[in-house]
Write a structure and sequence with these properties.
- 46% of the residues lie in helices and 12% in strands.
- The protein is globular and about 55 Å long.
- By secondary structure, the chain is α/β, with parallel strands linked by helices.
- The strands form two sheets. Strands 3-2-1-4 form a four-stranded parallel β-sheet, sandwiched between helices. A three-stranded mixed β-sheet has the order 5-6-7, covered by helices on one side.
- β5 and β6 form a beta hairpin.
- The protein contains eleven helices and seven strands.
Length: 274
């Protein structure tokens, strides 16, 4: 496909997305501040207007404070009709158990707070799911779909790369924002998810961000932290080895390791295939 054809394809997808949103008329966007939900929120606000597009951020210990702060900043920058709501998934024993259905329980908690807002305004809940997301283990998508949520990016044919390309075209600073799944995704299935564990992961990742590492995960294995960064960042980790070990150890980890396979989003799902 030529560059011109790619631009035409992207333009067509953007217009299809606007058409999907116009048909919905009034929406509530689940807004985590990531590239996908940010793009969807921006286009929905631009297409439907402030009063017909509400943007909801679910606040809980599984949302890193830095991501919460960025949601607030984006809402201010883009004049979003932003609402913060607290979710209580960590009070659910099924969620804490952290089996293969953890994300189902998380999205159920999200829909529990979004549904009343949507009902009050005759709106439809929408999520920033793209075509690439359909290939992974995502029980949360099933939970949202069962509650009537819709996925306009999927319906209009957006891949993750197309979301980033369109975001860049619109001048959105989120176009190259690293993926930042909820903190619970750092905890292997079968290990209980608790506030203490999530806090430790969050502090370790924040410490590494402070050292200049932009894209990373700290996977939690009791007293061991398994750090994932892109392969091209390995030299930087080695160069700052002592600082990395000190920063992560200060968060309560006894062993600090570097995953030689590099950063792989959602890689803990591989355990489900065994």
């Amino acid at each position: 496909m030529t560059a011109l054809e790619q631009r035409d394809e992207l333009s067509s997808a953007i217009e299809r997305l606007r058409d999907e949103l116009r048909q919905l008329q009034d929406v509530v966007v689940a807004f985590s501040g990531g590239a996908d939900s940010a793009f969807l929120a921006y286009v929905a606000r631009d297409t439907l207007g402030h009063e017909h597009c509400r943007v909801v951020t679910a606040v809980s210990p599984s949302l890193a404070a830095s991501e919460h702060e960025d949601c607030a900043a984006l809402a201010d920058e883009w004049d979003l009709n932003w609402i913060e709501v607290e979710t209580t998934e960590l009070e659910n024993a099924d969620y804490q158990r952290n089996d293969a259905e953890r994300c189902f329980h998380c999205k159920t908690a999200l829909m529990d707070v979004i549904d009343p807002i949507a009902a009050d305004h005759g709106a439809v809940a929408i999520l920033g799911v793209n075509l690439d997301d359909l290939d992974d283990h995502r029980p949360g998508q099933r939970a949202a779909s069962e509650r009537g949520a819709q996925f306009p990016l999927v319906d209009s044919g957006f891949t993750k790369q197309m979301v980033r390309d369109a975001s860049r075209r619109f001048g959105l600073r989120t176009w190259d924002k690293p993926a930042a799944a909820c903190l619970s995704s750092r905890v292997p299935y079968g290990t209980s998810v608790t506030i203490t564990v999530l806090s430790r992961v969050e502090r370790a990742e924040a410490a590494l961000h402070a050292l200049g590492f932009r894209e990373l995960r700290v996977r939690h294995y009791d007293d061991t932290a398994r750090i994932e960064v892109p392969l091209e960042a390995f030299d930087g980790v080695i160069a700052q080895r002592s600082a990395v070990v000190e920063a992560v150890s200060a968060c309560g980890y006894r062993y600090v390791t570097l995953d030689l396979e590099g950063l792989r989003s959602g890689n803990l799902n591989a355990a489900l295939e065994r």
